[in-house]
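REQUEST FORM: STRUCTURE PREDICTION
Request ID: SP-0412
Submitted by: Lab K.M.
Chain count: 1
Length (residues): 329
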Amino acid sequence: MERDMIVRPRRLRTTAALRKMVRETRMDKSSLVYPMFVMDGENIKEEIPTMPGQYRYSVDRMPEILNEMADAGVGSVMLFGIPAKKDEYGSQAYACDGIVQRAFAKAKKEVPDLYYIGDVCMCEYTSHGHCGILKGEYVDNDLTLDKLAEIAVTQVQAGADMVAPSDMMDGHIQAIREALDHNGLFTTPIMSYAVKYASAFYGPFRDAAGSAPAFGDRKSYQMDYHNRREGMKEALLDIEEGADIIMVKPAMSYLDMVREIKDATDVPMAAYSVSGEYAMVKAGAKLGYIDETAVLCEMAACAYRAGVDIYMSYFAKELAYYMDEGRIG
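STATUS: Completed
RESULT:
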């Protein structure tokens, strides 16, 4: 029986070509960032048990994966360093010859077409696993700021194109911006992990980087995941201090924050699809419970739909291929 309906939304869903024509959310490979781990040593490609398919690379083996990313069309890589020795002050994080500084120098020489981002934090480098300098068992905010600024400067001097502070110290963006400018690095952008929640989704990363706290937790500096207004406050503060890009972390469970901050600001938005998201997809697919390709594509599309301009994902290479194939984007 015919119905008298003028408006029929299904008209625009009748064929694949039409659905793609009217698609509201579009993605590009240049917006993808691949996070990867580099470690001291030689001839190392070591699989991360909690992140199957992801590896720790020594600097000499690192170009293998960098070339894979470049060939796939992934635009950028973020490097996390794992030093052979850690100490109370995380000194290898800001050493001119530290692991990540050497990695940036090698990467820029071997695969110069990629854009390189440095994670600015201390947790991978401190013997206690916290993100700053301790006073007793408390991370001293202001003592940590100078060290974060040193990390940023040495990373950029080694070859990083951008720095991304993930430490969540108050005033860190201003301290880093002033240090970069003082060293003539005016054009280096800062992507701030401004809206970084104290999340259980980080578990596999801490295994990968050996950065789990030796005591306590990070809830005195990372944000309470119950809070929405606090996230906006952090984002606006960091923009005021000089952040060029704002990141929300994790991605999947926090897309409400992406949308809210996107609507309230005029800077590019990034989101980090973190290790726990990756591990859940891999585990579910291995058990046959989910379709890995369909789920990872859906996760990415939903992030872009929420307002993401830059998407960090351990699935970056796969997403680039799926964009080429027209499965997503």
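NOTES: The mean pLDDT is 93.
Reviewed by: T.R.
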